[in-house]
Amino acid sequence: MRALGQLELVDNLQTLGIHYHFEAEIRRILENIYNLSNCEDHLYGVALQFRLLRQEGYQVPQGTCMT
Questions:
Q1: What is the greatest pairwise CA distance in the chain?
Q2: Angle at 39 between CA 33 and CA 42, to 5 degrees
Q3: In principle, which of 1, 12, 51, 57 could form an S-S bond with 5, CB 3.0–4.6 Å?
Q4: What are the two backbone dihedrals, phi and then psi, of residue 28, each rounded to the nearest 5 degrees?
Q5: Cα dist from 11 to 22, 40, 67, whole Å
Q6: How far apart are CA 23 and CA 64, in angstroms?
Q7: Rounded distance, CA 48 to CA 1, Å?
Q8: What PANTHER family does the record tag this protein with (predicted)?
Q9: Tens-digit pLDDT profile for residues 1-11
Q10: Which residues of 53-62 are buried (b: 16+ CB within 10 A; e: fewer)?
Q11: pTM for the structure as a whole
Q12: How much is the mean pLDDT over the chain?
């Protein structure tokens, strides 16, 4: 699954309020995305990536795509 699809999955699980059932999987997805420094090619993807990583405590710099 592409990074954007994984980010949307995490966001949907959080929105539905069932993310606590998938904590390990969510942690693994976000860790992989953070470590790969995967940069989305549109604003929606960058914003979603930034918000989810920051929300989980990752240190993501503002104003830059993580490349």
A1: 32
A2: 125
A3: 1
A4: -65, -45
A5: 12, 16, 22
A6: 27
A7: 16
A8: OS04G0344100 PROTEIN-RELATED, TERPENE SYNTHASE 10
A9: 688 999 999 99
A10: beeeeeeeee
A11: 0.82
A12: 87
